Amino acid sequence: MKLSKIAKTIGGKIFGQDIEVKNIKSILTARAEDLTILLDKLYLKDAQKSKACAIVTFTTEVKPKNGILVKNPRKVLPKLLKLFAYEDKQLGISKTASIDDSVKLGKALFIDDYVRIKEKTVIQDNVKIYSGATIGRNVVIGAGTIIYPNVTIYNNTQIGKNCIIHAGAVLGADGFGFERNEKKEWEKVTQLGKVVIGNDVEIGANSCVDRGAIQDTVIGDGTKIDNLVQIGHNCIVGKHNVFSSMAGLAGSTIVGDYCIWGGQAATAGHLTVGNDVTIMGRSGVTKNIKDNEVIQGFPAQNYKKEWKEQAVLRKWARRQLNKEEKTDEE
Amino acid sequence: MKLSKIAKTIGGKIFGQDIEVKNIKSILTARAEDLTILLDKLYLKDAQKSKACAIVTFTTEVKPKNGILVKNPRKVLPKLLKLFAYEDKQLGISKTASIDDSVKLGKALFIDDYVRIKEKTVIQDNVKIYSGATIGRNVVIGAGTIIYPNVTIYNNTQIGKNCIIHAGAVLGADGFGFERNEKKEWEKVTQLGKVVIGNDVEIGANSCVDRGAIQDTVIGDGTKIDNLVQIGHNCIVGKHNVFSSMAGLAGSTIVGDYCIWGGQAATAGHLTVGNDVTIMGRSGVTKNIKDNEVIQGFPAQNYKKEWKEQAVLRKWARRQLNKEEKTDEE
Amino acid sequence: MKLSKIAKTIGGKIFGQDIEVKNIKSILTARAEDLTILLDKLYLKDAQKSKACAIVTFTTEVKPKNGILVKNPRKVLPKLLKLFAYEDKQLGISKTASIDDSVKLGKALFIDDYVRIKEKTVIQDNVKIYSGATIGRNVVIGAGTIIYPNVTIYNNTQIGKNCIIHAGAVLGADGFGFERNEKKEWEKVTQLGKVVIGNDVEIGANSCVDRGAIQDTVIGDGTKIDNLVQIGHNCIVGKHNVFSSMAGLAGSTIVGDYCIWGGQAATAGHLTVGNDVTIMGRSGVTKNIKDNEVIQGFPAQNYKKEWKEQAVLRKWARRQLNKEEKTDEE
Fold it and tell me: Is the pTM of this model over 0.90?
């Protein structure tokens, strides 16, 4: 691929020669035939050692003498890397896929071996379903969605268009609902709700979204969920949120739009989180959170307050320990 | 379904007319043909706006003018929602299920496509096994148990009656046992124990229960395990416990009966936890816990002590920060 | 198996008679026909009650009057338990396995039912792949490796020799890479890297190792990963590390050799962790860590500092609370 072709897609100005590149690799793993990219001045030193023949960069003070100058290399990443993507062009429905006669199948599908699709389910156009995935009854899978291997989608789940569901994810398993009886035993509360996933949602490997009890669990358009995330029953999650790995929402949490959840961050149940909220990694949210808050800690609070309080406590503790050490020495 | 039929099952007294309802939905998602339920006076305002035609409630001060008056609506949930449950009546054994000739099959089974069952395994009556589940050799699956898609059950595992194992769960993978040799490398300790699951146990999606090293990992009757939970090797877990999502037991933990584990709560290995213990969310247990304790924090301790200590520390820190701010201003 | 045969394998000196044992079981679960093992003097009392007919022990002050005396019983565990291991001797390729014609198959393979292997993949000698596993295109699986049921291996992944990949694990799913556009929506950054796993690596049930963005995610030789662990994209993990259950590495973390991660321990992204580092359970690592450090807490620091600081703070808080209580009483 020529730099001029790439520049046409990502914007920016070519410097050096309009050479051909084979792959795109990171600064230190790139070989002579590769393009690389400088994302941050932190890596400027590395960029002065790169073996790449060309670079996407915000400065020409780098070793590769050919490349594309852009204002913010990070911003062009989606378009740039897509140029080098492997596209799976397989089409057709495997003879070993087991699809109930009542299933409605769209056009241009790829359904791989050992896929199971049950009664009354609708698979819209251009969907890809990989081997071992199981799709329950009465499910809708929107156009252009990709279901990776060994995914399980329980009955009645609705998935929007252009979603990506990674391997091992489970959508629509029973919410965790039990009531204790007079013998202190837990009686199951049948979970009658379903899971509704919007458009352009990505769900990571082995993540779980549980079905609701008497309402649906909802994930809004454009929300991206990493691996091993838990979304409990009855949660209503808005649009364009990000859930990092191992984040968890207990049941009946309502989340607005444009929120960011750090790794292992979790909320107690029945809370409301506003729009544009950032919950930093490992935080434990125990109360409702207003719009635009950035919170941390457990119980989570404004991150600056949290940091300052932690700092003042630790400072005191260290001074105290220093005093005790001195007393010991005397 | 008529209200009178429902009242017969759940108890309580009908008010308004004995009308027909179609589904049960939450207060705000119910439509004109639906029954709803008021679980808590927190939702009383919502219940005065509900479109439902009927309500299960503890007070008649609600908008739906027909319904069933019960003392504690939460307590009737198991019976009430079960009335509306979809029951999968499929029976029979798929031609594409691969079942070894030595497997003992009970009556009234449903075994779906691409299920694999290996040598000498026993499948008791009324078991349902969904597609993609793999059952190892010498396994016992008790009567009435449901195994959802893509579950993996390793060799020798024993599962009791009326259990529910959700999609992607893994029972009987090797416990995490290694010894370091003189080259600082980790040598595998073969895990010879098995997993033994009691009756009426529910195990959530993508949860893991590891096999023991030289004894069995045991989960007692009636214990309910949410999604993405880890139970390490050699653990002996008693009856009627609840493990919320992302909880974890390191190896060789002994847990009594009627305990509750909050989300992301975890224990170090080789500990003993008594009966009726509550371990609040995100707690890290580092020592043995006596009966009836309610604990929190890391290291976890009595939750009141934990809360008071945290409060007194934070109060001091805030006062300190206020002082510093004032000094800055002066 | 005779004690003399066992002693030949594990070393040590026989005492009592050279009797035959049937199984090896833990001290309290062993029956009259079993061998047991005393791992620690903590269990000495139990060992004086064991029903086992023989014992591997460091002292003869135990009830079983026959056995093998060794210096450190824990060190012989790998060899000892391997003697009693069940070995799956199945060979051959199931007719229901779906293997592309371009796949290169080694010798002495076991490939079970409903395994899917795609184009150009290489399966070396003595590999076992259990039912429901899906292997993408252009993958390499090294000699002697075992892939348990329902594992998903994405395109281009490379796995070394003698690895064990437990059920439900996912290798090579897309790293979690998105850029926010001017509409505050998240645009996917195609993940072009692959996953490269060394030799003798074990990966636990339902764990995830993501593919890199423009470089590979690498797990070094001999590293052992427990269940439900997350390794983010671009991570480079060295040799002979141990990751306990629910540990997580955010993206682009570099880890040396011989490190130990406790349960639920996690790192922020773009960090470097040295060699021989121990990260205690539940720790949150927020900065680079030097060789030989033992760290704990969040933000994680030297574990002794962490413990002392926590202790001095708690001591102060308790004294304060005691004072307040006394004041209340007066």
Answer: yes
